[in-house]
Specification:
The protein is of the alpha/beta class. 25% of the residues lie in helices and 28% in strands. The protein has nine helices and 22 strands.
Length: 395
């Protein structure tokens, strides 16, 4: 078959679909060119070369595993902490699919306990209903066990001292959907909370923290597996006290998430972090808020009002409050900083998925969660479980 740059509309999610591209990124390398066949919601075959026929053909494009975003506060005008019912999530799900996301953790910042409980109930119901679009893989609780001096956009009024009782109350809430908790590990009582969370199978991350190098290393020894938005809302790196950031860069056991929007991190800082962490430990996240994918203006971030303008989201006092970033834009920035397609497949998909213990990657038998990018890195197609979640040019 002569390669064509146009894709035929995919009419069914249940049938067999073959996708060919100039590059197909598999766990152990790249196929240039290659093709992926999807059947019954799973990867049926992955082969090198150009097929005799294909339903989607992009000779200059790339097929990657679908992106997994561990930190999303909202999108398309939807704030996950204050959403009222599962159907209200649909605009955000469509936005995420259009940016290559196939799985994500809705993220809830610090708020009054009844507000958090209600959000957990709604998100758990949405997850159980298996709504069309990206998979809700669980919930990321960013707080309330954070250091007040490093609260960032969190309202200090809703921060709490680490408490096993409160942590278990949140875990035992509706749907038991919590998969990741960010806390400040240096706070009194945090060690017991870390142990309790890990005993329940919850991934623990350090963030919004004033931890020094010693406290950070102790936290990693206790089982903290990730550092949330490296360099942001934590003790600044200093050449005589590297703190949490320095500890994360040095410790091969720990992953670290990065917000590559050129606002949270200078490109040189991002490049340094990517080089030191490597694709096995760097995790691309958006920290997107309701304003992502929506016009500039005023939005809600939980209990707070934020303003989106000039490519950033801030509190009225100028404090950064999440981002407008999308995962496909984060991938393009990582590539511009020198990452390879195989690197970004790990940082945007395989590494975060491994942290949660969910299958990912273009391997026969895995769920058919994938994204197809054109030569400019723009999303052309997103499949979730073999179903079309987004196709460029299609309503």
């Amino acid at each position: 078959m002569t390669p064509a740059s146009r894709s035929r509309p995919l009419r069914t999610a249940a049938g067999r679909v073959r996708i060919a591209a100039g590059r197909v990124v598999v766990p152990d390398g790249d196929l240039t060119p290659g093709w992926v066949e999807v059947a019954d919601g799973r990867i049926a075959a992955v082969q090198a070369g150009w097929p005799d026929a294909a339903d989607v053909a992009l000779p200059q494009g790339v097929v990657l595993p679908g992106f997994v975003d561990l930190q999303v506060n909202g999108a398309a005008g939807v704030d996950f902490l204050t959403v009222e019912d599962p159907a209200a999530l649909d605009p955000a799900l469509r936005h995420l699919a259009a940016t290559g996301v196939t799985g994500f953790l809705p993220t809830l910042i610090s708020a009054p306990l009844p507000v958090v409980r209600r959000a957990l109930e709604v998100l758990s119901a949405a997850r159980a209903a298996d709504r069309p679009g990206p998979r809700i893989l669980g919930v990321h609780l960013e707080g309330p066990f954070l250091h007040p001096a490093h609260a960032g956009a969190h309202d200090v009024a809703w921060l709490q001292a680490p408490s096993v009782e409160l942590a278990e109350a949140l875990l035992d809430g509706p749907g038991a959907a919590v998969r990741l908790v960010t806390l400040a590990p240096e706070l009194p009582g945090a060690g017991a909370v870390i142990a309790a969370l890990r005993a329940r199978g919850v991934v623990v991350a350090a963030g919004h923290s004033g931890a020094d190098l010693t406290a950070a290393r102790a936290a990693f020894d206790a089982g903290v597996a990730m550092v949330t938005h490296l360099f942001n809302a934590m003790r600044p790196f200093h050449h005589r006290e590297p703190g949490l950031a320095g500890a994360a860069l040095l410790d091969g056991r720990v992953r670290a998430s990065l917000i590559l929007d050129d606002v949270h991190l200078h490109p040189a800082t991002a490049a340094l972090a990517l080089r030191l962490l490597g694709p096995e430990r760097a995790v691309l996240v958006t920290d997107a808020v309701a304003a992502a994918g929506a016009p500039p203006g005023t939005y809600r971030l939980g209990t707070r009002e934020v303003v989106a303008q000039d490519g950033a989201v801030r509190l009225p006092d100028g404090t950064l409050a999440g981002s407008l970033l999308t995962m496909d834009a984060a991938v393009r920035r990582a590539l511009a900083l020198g990452a390879t397609c195989r690197d970004v497949a790990r940082m945007a998909a395989l590494t975060p998925a491994a942290l949660l213990g969910v299958p990912a990657g273009l391997r026969p038998g895995n769920p058919a969660d994938l994204v197809v990018l054109d030569e400019g890195g723009q999303v052309q197609l997103t499949l979730v479980g073999g179903a079309v979640a987004f196709q460029a040019g299609r309503p």
